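Hello again, I could really use a second opinion on something today. I've been staring at a protein lately and its backbone has me curious. Can you walk me through what the tokens say about the fold? Take your time with it, there's no hurry, and the full record follows here:
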Amino acid sequence: MSDGTRLDDAATLVTGATAGIGRASVRALAEVGADVALAARREERLESLAADVEREFGVDALAIPADVTDEAQVEAMVDRTVDAFGGLDVVVNNAGLGREEGDLTDLSTKKYRQMMDVNVDGSFFTARAALPHLRESAGNLIFLGSFAGQYPRPGAAVYAATKWWTRGFALSLAGSVGEDGVGVTVVNPTEVRTKFGSEDDDPFEARFKEGEVTEPEEVADAVVFAATQEPPTTANEIDLYRRDKFEHF
């Protein structure tokens, strides 16, 4: 599947594929030769990105509209990928969101449930559906964690909790599937200049200027590095911190 720098003809799947880290990861994987299944809720954006990727990189790209909070849609997403590409080598479990939280007593149950449903349930459903195929290929399962899943995040307690869960799940899962040759990696970036949150929240791409925080393409480079790992070794965690991140700690 990989020569350490290329993923020619590797069957890959990226959730949350139409924006930010997901979009950058799709392009980065295609650039090193991988065929990519793109999964997200917005079909028009998926189709447009898939067409761009095929035209620019000469790989196969499959657009799969899917909501990761729906386990039936997740199962179908994985099945379509396997049917199209003949297997599954790499899964980037990227779909996630944050909501402005502020004082916990003011946080609505709707916002709480949205974060839990996408970041926790969606991550679990995707991993569960993908694992049988990754066992067959001795493939790589990559989770997008966060700095918030390693250190306290005042003002973002629920989001941080979902990322602590993601990290704990990923590292514990690594201990369960390592004997099967499956590599599990969690990538932990600090703030990334993306459409973090939703239309009614303050996106990080508007809050930060270019160069102030990590760019999605930098995270995508780490995703590709994790995807090219081969048995018997893997990179269990990759932390992407700006060099000045701990200046005020």
Observations:
- Helices lie at 20-31, 43-57, 71-85, 109-137, 157-177, 204-207, 216-227.
